Amino acid sequence: MRYISTRGKAPALSFSDVLLTGLAEDGGLYLPETWPSFSKDEWKALRGLPYPELAARVLTPFVGSDIEGATLRRLCAQAYTGFDHPAIVPLTQVEDGLFVQELFHGPTLAFKDMAMQVLGQLFEHVLAERNSHVTIVGATSGDTGSAAIEACRGRDRLSVVILHPKDRTSEVQRRQMTTVLEPNVTNLAVEGTFDDCQDLVKACFADMPFRTDMHLSAVNSINWARIAAQIPYYVYAALNFGAPDREVSFAVPTGNFGNILAAWAARKMGLPIRRLCVGSNRNDILTRFLNANDMTMKEVIPSLSPSMDIQVSSNFERLLFELLDRDADACARIMTGFRSTGHMDVPAQTWEKARTVFSGLALDDGETEAEIKALHQNSNYLADPHSAIGIAAGRKFREAGVPMIAMATAHPAKFPDAMVAATGIHPALPVHLEDLFSREERYRTVPATPDAIKDAVRAAVLSNTH
Ligand SMILES: *Cc1c(COP(=O)(O)O)cnc(C)c1O
């Protein structure tokens, strides 16, 4: 399997190269050259498989000949050993025709673990084959950093440096990162905002000699392997509700459009998915697009669901490329225009095409809190603010006879303040994190300058590779 860029001006790469590269050289995002598809019988053969086994089978056509089948199965099995639910991705009913799939049973209690744990295994395997080392540098406002650290901790061939804005993440989120004491993990508390952190990471990647010397790599949600590793749970859910003989719909609390894009990919592979419903908070660029073809950047407003506080949904570019029938020039033109004007000029027929599959619903903080409260009262279900938004979107677009499955993306214990305000309940952290608040923390405070970050990255790499 080869991968091509949405902007058409970067070399086609294999799965392993796409894994290590992340963003394409031309600024585009990688997608498979052709979409693999499964026949009805092939879908049926996946019914009843344990989740890690199903994940390996779904990933196989994307990995191609890069990793041998038995090895891929072993890597997937290892990836999910740290999950604290036997089903890995359990399904629960909350209302008539409305179900929840919990994706937060991994080590950091957010759905990012679903893909990141697989990525950690894939990186280690590919780097061992190449006898190589990479340095993962990333910025986080919370969930991505801890998921990346958990996936990379203790791995010889990976150094991981995560920048977080000092005093601007929740304490649970900070401690999930800073209490990991393995020597290959470096936490930098940057004296600045999340945007500063992102700019500093970009500055590291833009310095070509530095990037090459340090073997920089990224695990943010534009990495194709992350999308690929999110497809299996949609397959698992759909099969449980009778696919491929029966249609299902999904509702997904959405930020960067990575999670829901994986659902779209499953549909592209032949899984009978009827509708895909985007849930947004006040940062509702996607919902505005779906409702009125209004994809206009606005300032980010902090909300109860911080992992969806985004201005631009990077992965939307992949859908756009497909909706444009893979016209890379048109895609590049529209994306460049978006960056320069802040408004994405999507042709009317392309927008109409998106609306045949996608719907969007946005909730403000008051509506989110009311949804958490209603779910608790009426269904005895505790949903964190992100998950509650997804469930609300699912309810709105549910159709008779088609199961609607909403993705629960974070454990409620990650957002205790919102849960107490809405329900009066302070959800307990799972056993493996019970002592989080008494663990030793390690991080360095650094000024928000590229030189300070590069020095810290150099020091981290030196201490890991010598
Ligand atoms: C990252 C995240 C999201 C958004 O997912 P995208 O793939 O960026 O759309 C939603 N909920 C939680 C809890 C997250 O951590």
TrEMBL record:
Its cofactor is pyridoxal 5'-phosphate. The keyword Oxidoreductase does not apply. Keywords: Amino-acid biosynthesis, Lyase, Pyridoxal phosphate, Threonine biosynthesis. The modification N6-(pyridoxal phosphate)lysine is found at K112. It comes from the Bacteria. It is an enzyme of class 4 (lyase). This is Threonine synthase. It comes from Acetobacter cibinongensis.
